[in-house]
Amino acid sequence: VMDTSGDVQFDVKFSALVFKPKKGDVLDGVVTNVNQNSIVVSVGPQSVMISQSSMPNNLEYDTFINAYKSTDMDVMIQENKEIRFRIVGVNILANEITCA
Questions:
Q1: 47-74 pLDDT, tens per residue?
Q2: Which helix (H) or strand (E) is 50 found in, with range?
Q3: How high is the pLDDT of residue 95?
Q4: Which of 3, 20, 73, 89: CA 20 to 30 A from 65?
Q5: Which of helix, strand or coil describes residue 73?
Q6: Residue 42, beta-bridge partner list
């Protein structure tokens, strides 16, 4: 109890889950890594791996430029590009959430 006002002050400790993606969510992120098997996308505090098998069939990996590009050259996915994607699976461990 505060002497001058009569207000009550409580010390409170809590934990909060502020980011929990789930299957079907559509997210925007920045590509941080590209290789022939997958791309890694940063979404806030989370890193998401998108495997080549989950990408559209018209995207092919180009080793020369280290990027995925569409056959008609309309789409190119490379590091530092922003992309939008849908979550198809989530693994939740004790202190870690892994998306695909």
A1: 888 999 988 889 999 999 999 999 888 8
A2: strand 46-51
A3: 64
A4: 89
A5: coil
A6: 30, 47
The helix/strand count (H/E) of the chain reads as 0, 9
Half-sphere exposure of 23 (CA within 13 A, CB side): 5
The pTM score is 0.73
Residue range 89-93: mean pLDDT, rounded:
76
13-19: long-range contacts, CB 8 A cutoff, minimum separation 24: 19/44, 19/45, 19/46, 19/97
Give the separation between CA 55 and CA 70, rounded to whole angstroms. Answer: 11
Q: In this predicted structure, what is the pLDDT of residue 40?
A: 94
State which amino acid sits at residue 17: L
76 and 61 Cβ atoms separated by less than 8 Å: no
Cα maximum dimension of the chain: 74
Q: How far apart are CA 36 and CA 84, in angstroms?
A: 20
pLDDT given for residue 39 in this prediction: 95
3-state secondary structure of 60: strand
Amino acid identity of residue 76, one-letter, is M
